[in-house]
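stage 2 :: seqdesign
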């Protein structure tokens, strides 16, 4: 009885696992689908992946099929005493099963290597340069040619390659301030308390490591407008899973409009308003120790302190804190009250702000459009 029962339980378990695996492939609204490339660089990867996948399927089917056939065909049977004919030392067979895999591997290597070179080449012509700086646990995007710095939401024009220089920055090592630009090639200036991240927007490009003290490059491009989501793909500490990003691809006209809007100074709230109280809190509190805002000044000095996200046009972004929060009043309040409580390990500490302070600060932040 138990002998007959065991395979049935095993069959049930296998069926259940297969069902779970199959169901896992059925995510609706999968926004990070590398199999749906939305630009030429992601397309190159897809063009390589598909044939290699089917070659691997063919190898799997042939090898496992032969294995199963041989296991069944030459299994032990009652009354069978002799050992089946042995093929050890059969030169023809051994040459064949050495040469065939070698040919398959060379056949896969040629398109793989050419794709690697095609993806790594710096594009020529009209190219948008962006510095991508990985922080714990959010992304900084600086457009060196445009004098724009933003966080977590990267805007790009469609149809134009974006040449990203990626590096990682910590809070600054000892008294050294955190850099807000990647170092030149061979530079070793970014190493401190920073860690390795990986920048990944599946529909637009492959993955690229974001490494302290080293500048890596990645080219991405979207060929249609839309919002593409991505995330950090390398374990980087407590809130690694909360280190997401959005890429907003726009028509060149919309992108230019966005750039002009980002280049503008932050507006000054009218005197006597709650937002003005918030600005006051901002300038006299801990905020300016880490956050730059272009516009307001302290002792005639602009607020350019790096370390935390540049807040000049905070409200133009749909999300904040590594894109784990939708940008709205309630979430900003929750965040300011106790950042590490809603995002484990957050470097922005709980400043013990009173409800009034939080209200005023959020009122000010909401003017930063
Ligand atoms: Cu940054 Cu994981």
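stage 2 :: out
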């Amino acid at each position: 009885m138990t002998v007959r029962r065991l395979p049935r339980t095993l069959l049930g378990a296998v069926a259940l696992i297969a069902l779970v695996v199959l169901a896992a492939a059925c995510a609706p609204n999968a926004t990070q689908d590398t199999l749906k490339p939305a630009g030429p660089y992601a397309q190159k990867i897809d063009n390589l992946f598909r044939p290699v996948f089917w070659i691997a399927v063919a190898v799997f089917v042939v090898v496992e099929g032969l294995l199963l056939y041989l296991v069944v065909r030459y299994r032990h049977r009652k009354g069978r005493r002799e050992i089946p004919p042995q093929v050890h030392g059969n030169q023809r067979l051994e040459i064949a099963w050495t040469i065939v895999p070698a040919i398959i591997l060379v056949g896969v290597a040629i398109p793989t290597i050419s794709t690697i070179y095609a993806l790594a080449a710096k594009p020529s012509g009209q190219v948008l340069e962006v510095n991508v700086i990985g922080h714990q646990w959010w992304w900084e995007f600086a457009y060196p040619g445009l004098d724009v710095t933003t966080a977590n939401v990267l805007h790009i024009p469609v149809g134009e390659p974006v040449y990203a220089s990626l590096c990682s920055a910590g809070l600054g090592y000892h008294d050294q301030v955190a850099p807000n630009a990647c170092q030149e090639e061979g530079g070793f200036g970014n190493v401190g308390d920073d860690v390795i991240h990986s920048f990944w927007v599946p529909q637009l490009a492959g993955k690229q490591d974001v490494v302290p003290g080293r500048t890596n490059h990645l080219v991405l491009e979207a060929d249609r407008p839309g919002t593409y989501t991505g995330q950090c793909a390398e374990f980087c500490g407590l809130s690694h899973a909360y280190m997401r990003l959005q890429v907003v691809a726009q028509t060149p006209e919309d992108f230019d409009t966005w750039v002009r809007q980002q280049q503008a100074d932050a507006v000054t709230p009218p005197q006597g308003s709650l937002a003005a109280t918030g600005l006051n809190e901002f300038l006299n509190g801990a905020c300016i120790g880490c956050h730059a805002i272009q516009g307001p000044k302290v002792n005639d000095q602009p607020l350019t302190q790096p370390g935390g996200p540049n807040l000049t046009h905070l409200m133009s972004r749909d999300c904040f804190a590594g894109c784990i929060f939708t940008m709205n009043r309630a979430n900003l309040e929750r965040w300011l009250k106790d950042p590490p409580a809603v995002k484990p390990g957050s470097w922005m500490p709980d400043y013990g702000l009173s409800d009034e302070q939080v209200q005023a600060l959020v009122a000010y932040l909401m003017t930063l459009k």
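stage 3 :: structure notes
- The first helix runs from residue 2 to 24.
- The chain has a mean pLDDT of 90.
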